Amino acid sequence: MTKPVWLLNGPNLNLLGLRQPEIYGRETLADVVAACERLAGELGLALHALQSNHEGQIVEHIHAAREAASGIVINPGAYSHTSVAILDALNAFEGPVLEVHISNIHRREAFRHHSFVSGRAEGVIAGFGTEGYLFALRRMRSLLK
Questions:
Q1: Number of other CB atoms surrounding residue 57 within 10 Å
Q2: Is residue 62 left, alpha or beta, with left meaning phi > 0 and alpha meaning psi from -120 to 50?
Q3: Is 24 a catalytic residue?
Q4: What phi and psi, each to the nearest 5 degrees, are found at residue 135?
Q5: Smallest Cα–Cα separation from 129: which of 60, 27, 14?
Q6: 78-137 residue pLDDT tens
Q7: 3-state secondary structure (DSSP) of residue 51
Q8: What gap in Å lies between CA 58 and CA 8, rounded to an integer?
Q9: Reduced to 3 states, what is the DSSP secondary structure of residue 131?
Q10: Catalytic residue among 48, 61, 79, 101, which?
Q11: What is 75-114 written as a DSSP string?
Q12: 38 membership: H or E segment, kind and range
């Protein structure tokens, strides 16, 4: 595989392990990225991980991925429910997109039940904790074959 899979994380995921651990667990984003890098290596994938709390920066990352990534695994965080800009950027990306949520967004507040990103994603993984990222990488490998 010549182009890496990009792992994009949105707002507040830099606080993973600290922010609401009863919902999101105690693993840090660094722990998640390390586990994803290990699995990506086993799957023969390269991984490029990025996180931003800023919607425009996430859009810029997706724009850059158009030339540099084979696929995108994205946890857009709260922007899932609000960002048409991220959806539009993903619609301009030609590779596969998988959406990940650590919590089950459908068991939470009603405003979290809708994700703009889901309309573009080949698949959505929600409610499996940080293990959802690993599920997404396995699925991404299948999609890229």
A1: 14
A2: alpha
A3: yes
A4: -60, -45
A5: 27
A6: 999 999 999 999 999 999 999 999 988 888 778 677 899 999 999 999 999 999 999 999
A7: strand
A8: 8
A9: helix
A10: 101
A11: E-GGGGGT-HHHHHHHHT--S-EEEEESS-GGGS-GGGS-
A12: helix 29-43
Catalytic residue among 24, 48, 61, 79: 24
Other C-beta atoms lying within 10 Å of the C-beta of residue 84: 9
- What domains, with CATH codes, occur in the chain? 5-144 (3.40.50.9100)
Cβ contact 136:100 at 8 Å: yes
pTM (predicted TM-score): 0.93
Looking from the CA of 135 toward its CB, the CA atoms found within 13 Å total 15
pLDDT digits (tens, 9 = 90+) for 17-61: 888 888 888 999 999 999 999 999 999 999 999 999 999 999 999
Cα-trace Rg, the chain = 14
CB 25 within 8 A of CB 129: yes
Q: Check if the beta carbon of residue 47 is closer than 8 Å to that of residue 1.
A: no
Q: Which two tokens stand for residue 76?
A: 């857009």
* C-beta of residue 10 within 8 angstroms of C-beta of residue 52: yes
Is there a contact between 45 and 141 (Cβ–Cβ < 8 Å)?
yes
